[in-house]
């Protein structure tokens, strides 16, 4: 029996509701997930990532403009499977940037068949905190000391929606399948990943067909989450509300944390328990030796990459969701 068969048909999340029609639409597509054997047995094994000039030559740096005028800097690793290509968005941790991934995890995932987008969230890397020009390549606009709750909140409808628009354009060019989307967050950006998943699943399909299932979706694209050293609170984002949304939809989640992480304070275990009160097998909590946090868990021979690859292979790589035209039928 799939996880989807256990889900209710409606749920409300505080001030933002997840309309029953959007959730019902999601139920029709969640059936492609396969619960059962532990993801670590999926057979994927990390190989050394391409480094240096070879890694840099495979991605394109781009600037996206958010709805509030922020020039958002990303790197795009194009896939090689055309419209069957799944895609992973990688979000850095505190004081980090997309460079935490560009020579390590991103090319590793790209080699495994995924399109990858790495992001400098506002106030980090080359993305400024306020509207204006992006930093020149290699120059940082990091301004984390001045981040306010409203800035963290704006990362969801601003930064992440700009990334989603980019993925939509690539999807319509048949370069990837945006319906096979995973997001990895680290430290504070785990809250951004959770909140964006809530937003994505709350979107009502286009009213372009008599049958609900036949209507063209506007969201319901995030299919899996990877959360490294998740934080229990973040000013500006209602993590509790977002966790409830992810639990109700039944999305698979991989949580990773250091065994001696003094900053964790039990947040990872509490999150895993909240996301999986019925003890099903789609929520995974992995503990890695040492006190490293977030992206520090990568590139340390801790098997973090092996687990990420196996998890993605199970829930994204093996997904049978087919590419479809995502424009409303009324606009084609």
CATH superfamily: Alpha/Beta hydrolase fold, catalytic domain
Report the C-alpha radius of gyration, rounded. 18 Å
Helix-residue proportion: 25-40%
Total of domains: 1
CATH-derived architecture: 3-Layer(aba) Sandwich
Question: Can you count the beta strands?
Answer: 10
Q: H/E order of the elements?
A: EEHHEEEHHEHEHEHEHEH
Keywords:
332 residues, Rossmann fold, 30% helix, disordered N terminus
Description:
This protein is of the alpha/beta class and 332 residues long. The protein has a single domain (21-322), classed as 3-Layer(aba) Sandwich (Rossmann fold). The protein has nine helices and ten strands. It has helices at residues 20-30, 52-56, 99-102, 105-111, 149-172, 189-201, 239-249, 267-275, 304-317, and strands at residues 11-13, 16-18, 59-65, 71-77, 87-91, 115-120, 181-186, 222-228, 253-258, 283-288. It has an eight-stranded mixed beta sheet, with helices on both faces. A hairpin with a 2-residue loop joins strand 1 and strand 2. Helix 5 packs across helix 6 (189-201). The longest helix is centred in the middle third of the chain and has 24 residues, at 149-172.
